[in-house]
Amino acid sequence: MDKLKLLLVLLALGLAVGTSAQIVKGSLADEGGNIVNAHGAGIMHYNGRYYLFGEIKTGNTWLVAGQQWEDYRVPAGGVSCYSSKDLQHWKYEGVALKPTVGDTSSDLDTSRVIERPKVVFNSSTKKFVMWMHIDKKDYSYSQSGVAISDKPAGPYHYLYSVKPNGNMSRDMTLFKDDDNKAYLVYSSEQNKTMQVCLLSNNYLSPTKTFSRILIGRNREAPALFKSGHKYYLITSSCTGWSPNAATYAVADSPLGPYREFGNPCRGKGAEFTYQAQSTFVLPISGKPGQFIFMADRWNKLDLPKSDYLWLPLKVNGNTVSIAGD
Ligand code: DGJ
């Protein structure tokens, strides 16, 4: 093959790799060959790199006694961070938020629950802000915690946790809009209704501006994203660690009102979200309309062995579709 042909082949290969969204089905390894430990994860794109944050799950899984549901737990392991330029090669950045040991009054104690961490950058304060679900092992605490860092990968300094406007907050996500306003979205009111709360300009506290959405619909695992001028919210039903059918809703503003649609998943396994549960929808940088649906395949009897499912997601008007497993 002459040099020109070789160049053309390499170029074509490069383009093909560049346009294919990252698909993950199972475990994911970092550059060191270690399994990525980042559950209930979210991704922040900053300065040309993707930063993945998630729950560290290690140790034995046990069932919390006296609960009406399958409350399987591992010690709260804090939050991990990995970074990547291409969503394919992940560098382990370390523990972004450490748990504390032996102080049950601390939100970050290993006896507690630290779930679904999400991070956004505040371009005014130049700080990276992490929000997460903080709870007690029986999920009665129902608060959102916030931590801050000067650097994308951390370490993050934990500030406090709060019930936004006095309301319960469990499964959550964070969404930063193009106008730099940021919102906390969380399962509230005993998981019956979701709420969306506008954060303060520094992203460190809830404001009094909030709305009740998906009222009485019993949804959790929110993943909010924007395509064009519309906002799309994927959620799951509330069945503990067991999979169920995802649904989505569409709005003209992050605060709603949201119009509910059906299941975005297509094909075999769609009625159980291909055995997974939503955690985040990532816009692919520089590729408008292209997204990755990120979900967790929980292994409730051995939570550290939980896997990941990342699939391409497409939007066409009010229709969101996730390709089959
Ligand atoms: C479902 C939630 O989506 C998870 O984040 C976790 O809180 C489990 N429930 C606990 O059973």
**Structural class based on helices, strands and sheet pairing:** mainly beta
Would you identify the CATH H-level superfamily?
Glycosyl hydrolase domain, family 43
What is the share of helical residues? under 10%
**How many domain regions?**
1
Main sheet overview? 5 strands, antiparallel
Order of helices and strands: HEEEEEEEEEEEEEEEEEEEEEEE
Q: Which kinds of small molecule does this entry bind, naming each only once?
A: (2R,3S,4R,5S)-2-(hydroxymethyl)piperidine-3,4,5-triol
State Rg. 19 Å
Number of strands: 23
What is the terminal separation in angstroms? 38 Å
Shape: globular
Helical run tally = 1
Write down the overall mean pLDDT: 93
Give the low-pLDDT segments.
6-19
CATH architecture: 5 Propeller
Name of the top-level CATH class: Mainly Beta
Strand content: over 45%
Model description:
About 4% of the residues have low confidence. The chain is mainly β. It is globular, with a radius of gyration of 19 Å. It has one domain: Tachylectin-2, Chain A (5 Propeller), CATH 2.115.10.20. Strands 1, 20, 21, 22 and 23 form a 5-stranded antiparallel sheet that branches. A 4-stranded antiparallel sheet has the order 2-3-6-7, with no helix packed on it. (2R,3S,4R,5S)-2-(hydroxymethyl)piperidine-3,4,5-triol (DGJ) binds next to β8 and β16.
A few lines on this structure:
By secondary structure, the protein is mostly beta strands. The protein is 5% helix and 47% strand.
Task: Give short descriptive properties of this protein.
325 residues; mainly beta; Tachylectin-2, Chain A; 5-stranded antiparallel beta sheet; 23 strands; 5% helix; 47% strand; binds (2R,3S,4R,5S)-2-(hydroxymethyl)piperidine-3,4,5-triol
